[in-house]
Amino acid sequence: VAGLGNYGLRGTRHSVGMEVLDQLARQLAVAEGWRVDKRCCADVALATAHGLELVLLKPRRFMNLNGLSVASAAEIYSLGPQDIYLVHDDLDKALGKVAIKLGGSARGHNGVQSCISALQSNEMTRLRIGIGRP
């Protein structure tokens, strides 16, 4: 589960994916387990939920390079694109609205496009968090 955003610009609406991962880590009682993994240039926490092993990932890069971290982590943890969930902002959705999308285009989102390019696939599931237009 990769929370897309601009590392170092926490609290901005475009980094909502990382905020969602922080909340998920708290709910899964692994919030203290975040560690820097230099191999994929990301903060990583491992968790278990409903019998599934999860890798929570917050890339330590700007949005348009998030895919490099996601692809590196996929290789490290032997994950295919179909195993990856991207959590990201969506300008076209009203603030707070949430939608799940399976595959397809990036719809203009630079972080998703970076992941599609780095993984050479568009099969990732996306959790789109509405941030609305300014």
Question: What does this entry look like structurally?
Answer:
By secondary structure, the chain is of the alpha/beta class. It has one domain (2-130): Peptidyl-tRNA hydrolase (Rossmann fold, 3-Layer(aba) Sandwich). Helices cover 25% and strands 28% of the residues. The chain has helices spanning 16-27, 66-76, 110-119; strands spanning 2-3, 35-37, 42-49, 52-59, 85-90, 98-102, 125-130. It has a four-stranded mixed beta sheet. Strand 2 and strand 3 (42-49) form a beta hairpin. It is globular. This is PTH hydrolase. GO terms for molecular function: peptidyl-tRNA hydrolase activity; tRNA binding. InterPro entries: Pept_tRNA_hydro, Pept_tRNA_hydro_sf. Keywords: Hydrolase, RNA-binding, tRNA-binding. It comes from Hypocryptadius cinnamomeus.
What is Rg?
13 Å
What is the helical fraction, as a range of percent?
10-25%
Strand content: 25-35%
Biggest pleated-sheet summary: 4 strands, mixed
Let me know the number of strands: 7
**Oligomerization state of this entry?**
single chain
What's the end-to-end separation, in Å?
27 Å
Using the coordinates above, name the CATH class.
Answer: Alpha Beta
Secondary-structure element order, as H and E?
EHEEEHEEHE
Question: In DSSP terms, counting alpha (H) and pi (I) runs of 4 or more, how many helices?
Answer: 3
- Specify the CATH homologous superfamily: Peptidyl-tRNA hydrolase
Task: Tell me, rounded to a whole number, the average pLDDT.
Answer: 95
> How many domain regions?
1
Q: How would you classify the helix and strand content by structural class?
A: alpha/beta
The CATH topology comes to Rossmann fold
InterPro entries: Pept_tRNA_hydro, Pept_tRNA_hydro_sf
Pfam family, one: Pept_tRNA_hydro
Protein name: PTH hydrolase
Keywords: Hydrolase, RNA-binding, tRNA-binding
